[in-house]
Amino acid sequence: MSLKLYNSLSSKKEIFKSISDKIVKTYGCGPTVYNDPHIGNFRTFVFYDLLNRVLQLNGYETETAVNITDIDDKIIDRVNQENSSLKEITSKYELSFMELSKSLKILPNNHNPRATEYVEEMIEFIQALIDQNLAYEMNGNIFFDIEAYPKYGKFINIKDDLEAEDNELLKRNRNDFTLWKAKKDSDGNIFWESEWGKGRPGWHTECAVMIKMLFDGRLDIHCGGVDLKFPHHENESAQIEALQKHNLSNYWLHAEHLNIDDEKMSKSSGNFIDVNNLIKENGSDVVRLFLLSAHYRTKVSFSQKKLDECKKMIEKINRFAKNFKFVNQSIELKFSYDHNLFIDALNDDLNTPEAIGVFFSFISEMNKKIAKNSINKLDEEKSLVFLKLFNSIFDILDSHNLQDHKIPKNIQNLLISRQKARENQDWKLSDSIRDKILSLGWHVEDTSSGQKPSKKN
RNA sequence: GGCGUCGUACCCAAGUGGUUUAAGGGACCGGUUUGCAAAACCGUUAUUCGUCGGUUCGAAUCCGACCGACGCCUCCA
Questions:
Q1: CA proximity to A255, closest of A241, A240, A265, A247
Q2: Between the CA of A349 and the C1' of B56, what is the distance in angstroms?
Q3: Which residues, 6+ apart, have CB-to-CB distance to A68 below 8 Å?
Q4: A361 beta carbon < 7 A from strand B?
Q5: Strand A258-260's sheet: what is its strand order?
């Protein structure tokens, strides 16, 4: 099955066609680095990673960008509150974002452009819009004139008229948006010089110009959270498409929100869960699986219970994986029927819940064979391939399973003593050694073929 | 107010016109196995998909109304 993606432009699933045969270019709106991200932010970032991995699974090479918004009102507020500098604040939270991304197994992006590194280009871009009569100046602010761009409204129907109460900034139209913000007193020393005076670029312009510079204004896929669909993506595409003859992006993908108590998680509402703590308490693999266990276009409610369930799922997969020896790291990935069901699910608009279902059905089928001792060489190969395939997308398997892990000497010795106790039917001693081994971080299971040690996750 | 999304078992969550008289995970109960435990296996848990109508040979899937939840329209992943 070819890859299908739900395109917000048509509100339909469409067969994905890349601009170039080999390489797919994607851009996702990244974090504003003024404080620690919450788990809802990372639902979207993990979704970008999912898309990236599924594209690669389909044989595409990808060129990805996730931007760092490092100029913004909230950042300036923070700088003022903490009597700090812009760079100090933004580099601190950018680092935190990068570390959390790594911890959640998000593959590195080809580009992580910072808005501050493109201000010159943004000024030139805004000037080009003014030259084309697509933007106008008002008290040192520059606004995009939506009346001058008839195609405005790809994501929303605009009917609103200009109303006095919405118009403190003297915009011509209520939906005209800021390209350049005139410096305010509270901005302190955070400003850039331009022909229109001191100020800084608006958010929508930041993304537009970074895409212009990195990708020549032409993307295969643009992603973001649903809340960015309007006005951010509308405005971003309007200004860039007004200046160029082609689309900014052929596909627009939007990830739904992570809710808490049935409401959108947000920093401004104060109802958010810190990712860092969540990872510390549950492990990054559990958090990652939780984020991938619902389809990206459905609302998800946060709950600890779900995380606990994900933990059990991972344990189940790891137990299954322990049946096989991953000695030969370079096994060839030859896909058979079951594998293709899994790939088809992912290719159907990244249907991770279905893909997980396919994988668990397979595990169940193999476990039956293992229980009956009727598993053959082919089954083992299929299992190894499936584990690798699954992990190439979900990336949550215990790394101990993917290599022939060594049992430490002290554990080995305890196992030998326990084996002797068992031969003597000294269950009391046997159980106490089991407890001892457990306290050292290892499980022991007694199977028909003897003791089976495994590292505690 | 305008625009939009969603409502599937005890919980989570796929399926969006016929091979589904509804995947998968968690939970519960009973059984096999086991010195015990754990795991694994077997069996049980929705004749039903928010409600009521309609279209159709056939609907959880399409249409309408209603009820309920949420999102965007203002910073926001």
A1: A265
A2: 29
A3: A30, A31, A33, A90, A94, A97, A112, A113, A114, A115
A4: yes
A5: A263-264, A258-260, A300-301
Q: How far apart are CA A82 and CA A35, in angstroms?
A: 12
Torsion of the alpha carbons at A208, A209, A212 and A213, rounded to the nearest 10: -150
Per DSSP, chain A holds a count of helices (H) and strands (E) of 14, 15
- Look up the pTM and report it: 0.93
For A38, phi then psi, to 5°, come to -105, 175
Q: Is the CB of A370 under 7 A from strand B?
A: yes
Pairing label, strands A23-28, A219-225: parallel
Whole-angstrom Cα distance, residue A47 to residue A260?
Answer: 19
pLDDT in tens, A298-318: 999 999 999 999 999 999 999
State residue A62 phi and psi, 5-degree precision. -120, 145
How many angstroms separate the CA atoms of A74 and A53, rounded? 33
Q: Please tell me whether residue A114 adopts helix, strand or coil conformation.
A: strand
Residue A54 — φ and ψ, nearest 5°? -70, -35
Distance measured from the CA of protein residue A356 to the C1' of nucleotide B9, in angstroms: 19
Give the residue nearest to nucleotide B27 (CA to C1').
Answer: A309
Q: Hey, what amino acid is at A93?
A: Y
Asked whether the beta carbons of A365 and A382 are under 8 A apart, the reply is no
What ipTM did this prediction achieve?
0.95
| CA nearest neighbour of A63 among A95, A116, A108, A115 | A108
CB A181 within 8 A of CB A115: no
Calpha distance A318→A443 (Å, rounded): 13
3-state helix, strand, coil in chain A (%, to 5): 45, 15, 35
Residue A319, CB, less than 7 Å from strand B? yes
As a whole number of angstroms, the distance between CA A36 and CA A20 comes to 37
Distance between CA A421 and CA A425 in Å, rounded? 6
* pLDDT band at residue A171 using 50, 70 and 90 as cut-offs: confident
pLDDT tens readout for residues A225-268 = 999 999 999 999 999 999 998 999 999 999 999 999 889 998 88
| Cβ proximity of A212 and A37 under 8 Å | no
